[in-house]
Specification:
Oligomer: single chain
Number of domains: 1
Helix content: over 70%
CATH topology: ABC transporter involved in vitamin B12 uptake, BtuC
Radius of gyration: 23 Å
Shape: globular
Number of strands: 0
Largest sheet: none
Number of helices: 16
């Protein structure tokens, strides 16, 4: 009897570890990242423990630092959502940067071009930014499907196109006519229709609340709807999902549109809540999108996990700046830590794939085959 009890407890522990495997792996990657980052700091002649503690304090140690971190995390969260939707559905898109840029630029022009109540301007500006992101994402998907070019390459290249388009228009057509500094490449400031701050003394605005609400909505879509179920199955194995009756073209279109909307929304919130105008290079130079991809990778494409991982990564950047100011430790240390975390999380997928354990596909297939085939039971017979 005691042996059975012991075995039962051990099996419960093993089930808990299996259930939260992604959490443990992310936590381990973060610990290793800090450890190697500490070694780099130590080799540079600084106190590693003091520097890392100061980094954490500079990211989360006071109301000011915490709200600064939350403000920086907002576009990262939206970029993470966009990446998770695309990559988690089997469509490797790197186009969130271009979509966010165009969403930010279009949003700024709508906000300064229309009159009316602030709420109406906010809603219309955000919708304009989302539509801009959706259209640009759709173009990427259409080119990839029409000419059979890798989506990854198309979306990456279109980021540069979007960045240069925005730069051209900001230089020559929509540059602030009232700007005192003629060298500043930016649009006119938004006077009415910007996102209010959550706390009057700090910079965190209601874009963060929008991100939280959207995280819950995306979780529901991904895990409680037919569309989310089909998207996840397509991400696990596109051929298997198509064999079960899923239309891969329609799925790609829907996923990329939704992903583009998230990126465009992120750009709109950055304009309406933080910059109050579009500034040339404000998206590409800040590294929001790449950090969002890292956040999505750490969270294993889980919407709620992306919120927490984005806040953590934003805190590393904010804390890295604080360490540089107070201890003269280069802020690039935070980038080193992020890079190590990315490397470890990426290698996890590669090793799992090589050993045939990626997502325990056999178990998933056996459980979902009937449900997939029930969508179009004649598909197998036709094949």
């Amino acid at each position: 009897m005691p042996e059975k009890v012991f075995k039962g407890k051990r099996s419960k522990r093993s089930n808990i570890f299996k259930k939260y495997t992604a959490v443990w792996e992310a936590f381990l990657a973060i610990i290793v990242g800090f450890f190697i980052g500490g070694l780099v700091i130590n080799w540079s002649g600084f106190n590693a423990i003091a520097a890392i503690l100061r980094m954490l304090e500079g990211g989360f140690g006071s109301d000011y630092y915490l709200t600064t971190t939350l403000t920086r995390s907002i576009p990262i969260i939206f970029a993470g959502f966009a990446a998770a939707l695309a990559w988690g559905s089997g469509y490797p898109s790197l186009g969130a940067s271009g979509q966010m840029i165009l969403g930010a630029m279009i949003c700024s022009q709508i906000a300064i071009s229309i009159d009316g109540p602030a709420l109406v301007i906010i809603v219309l500006s955000i919708l304009g930014g989302m539509i801009a992101g959706m259209v640009y994402s759709f173009i990427s998907g259409w080119i990839s499907d029409r000419f059979q070019i890798y989506l990854l390459i198309i979306t990456l290249m279109m980021n540069y196109i979007a960045d240069n388009i925005a730069s051209y228009f900001t230089h020559y057509f929509i540059k602030d006519p009232f700007g005192l500094d003629s060298s500043a490449i930016q649009t006119q400031k938004i006077e009415v229709g910007y996102l209010p701050r959550i706390f009057s003394d700090f910079t965190t605005h209601y874009g963060f609340i929008i991100a939280l609400i959207l995280g819950g909505i995306l979780w529901f879509i991904k895990y409680r709807t037919v569309f989310g179920y089909r998207a996840r199955m397509g991400g696990l194995n596109a051929l298997f999902a198509e064999y079960g009756g899923l239309n891969s073209k329609k799925m790609m279109c829907g996923v990329l549109l939704l992903s583009g909307a998230m990126a465009g929304l992120g750009g709109a919130c950055e304009v309406l809540g933080t910059r109050f105008r579009y500034v040339n290079g404000m998206i590409s130079s800040s590294g929001y999108v790449w950090t969002g991809i890292i956040a999505s990778l750490i969270a294993n494409n889980h919407p709620i996990g992306i919120v927490f991982s984005s806040i953590f990564l934003a805190g590393l950047t904010t804390g890295g700046s604080a360490v540089e100011r107070s201890m003269s430790v280069p802020s690039e240390v935070s980038a080193i830590i992020q890079s190590i975390i990315t490397l470890l999380m990426t290698s996890k997928f590669i090793v799992s794939y090589r050993h045939g354990k990626f997502g325990t596909l056999k178990k998933i297939y056996s459980k979902t085959a009937k449900r997939l085939l029930s969508i179009n039971p004649g598909r197998v017979e036709n094949k």
